[in-house]
Hints:
The complex is a heterodimer.
Chain A: E1 5-13, E2 16-17, H1 32-42, E3 47-51, H2 59-72, E4 77-80, H3 86-94, E5 99-102, H4 104-108, H5 111-120, E6 125-134, E7 137-142, E8 147-152, H6 153-163, E9 167-172, H7 184-193, E10 198-201, H8 207-215, E11 221-224, H9 226-229, H10 235-244
Helix pairs in contact in A: 1-2
Chain B: E1 3-6, H1 13-22, E2 28-30, H2 33-37, E3 41-44, H3 50-59, H4 62-65, E4 73-76, H5 78-82, E5 84-87, E6 92-93, E7 98-104, E8 113-119, E9 134-140, E10 142-144, E11 150-156, E12 158-166, E13 169-172, H6 180-191
Parallel strand pairs in B: 1-2, 1-3, 3-4, 4-13, 5-7
Antiparallel strand pairs in B: 5-6, 7-10, 8-9, 11-12, 12-13
Amino acid sequence: MLTKRIIPCLDIKNGRTVKGVNFVDLRDAGDPVELAKQYAEVGADELVFLDIAATLEGRGTTLDMVLRVAEQVNIPFTVGGGISSVEHVDALLQCGADKVSVNSSAVKRPELVNELAEKFGSQCVVVAIDAKQIEGQWKVHLAGGSIPTDIDLFDWAKEVEQRGAGEILFTSMDHDGTKAGFANEALAKLSTTLNIPIIASGGAGNVQHFIDTFVEGKSDAALAASVFHFGEIPIPELKQELKAKQIQVRL
Amino acid sequence: MKLIIINYGAGNIKSIQFAFKRLGYDTVLSNNPEEIKAADKIIFPGVGEASSAMKMLKESGLDALIPKLTQPVLGICLGMQLMCLHTEEGNTEGLGIFQTKVKRFSSKVKVPQMGWNVIKDLKSDLFKGIKENEYMYLVHSFYAEHCKETIAATDYGINYASALQHNNFYGVQFHPEKSGVVGAKILENFLNI
Lengths: 251, 193
């Protein structure tokens, strides 16, 4: 049976891991390659690298990092942050990235999703959506959640599926950073109305939150950053506890 | 050992190169028929859409060459699917090495299948030392139906062939290059065939 995936997310700036990494056994916690290798060893199913600076000048540095990760890490990884063109995606894939995620650029120019799916296949196109509830309605936000739009989360998710997205990474801005659990109601609605995998993001604080998002949220994968980076939830223990709840995981 | 990765413009070749490099082997990318014919082992990769990949194979004449190869050939993902008789993706005729057809997953499951699933009912030297029900990384919307050449099976809504073998031709639906240490072992087994 296909397993639920656990995905640590690493924020990258100028080819280095930025905030919040406190791993005990690392010589250099700022080195994304070393961190990625360690995550692969402890049983992470996939990794996401988010280039939070994503400047044009820094593009070469990021490509170099992607190349080094691909060279040394034997699990799949996604690269996101500031991606808005077919050429940029081509360069990332050529360096060994398995998937790319697009966010604001797809909202600004939805055809980008079609172009990427046609050229590279849906399997490598992740559409990241940041949304927040405004008067009870889930609205898509841009630029890391700072700019609200009028676009409804569920309409937008359906649209990108039809345009060829292979997967959706949904971050609830209402839950992100709270450590109070994932947005399971919205996740379950996405997961049942769409026929592509949904990655839950925003709100992970304890093991129960992961259980809840896989059971109630019907999520296919769960992404988190700080709970993994600070060792608050060790991945092997998390997976053991998920297994104990009859949730299929790779052990 | 001369190890060639067929380079016809389809797929994430870098990851395969790096996976062999981690095992201590250099690879050569080539679409040159003479060079491919002279190789000891051949990898036939593929990611993307079947009909356009097949078109690229035809343009370089590789569609005629590949079925005639006599050394071990390993097709990965779309590479494996193109080695079958036919695929529903783009209604594409395959190379006809494996006597089976490739169909789209039903909409009862999420498509693509994306993530880690187990391989079982293992046959063939390709899986020497590999236990039943090991996890492999898979990303695909189409699957090969079982046939006499099936050497591994996986369940995703349906039980299908996740690996195939016909004489010197091997095909795997999963990505051994992305499947941790077990995937690496399968690549190593291929090199030892």
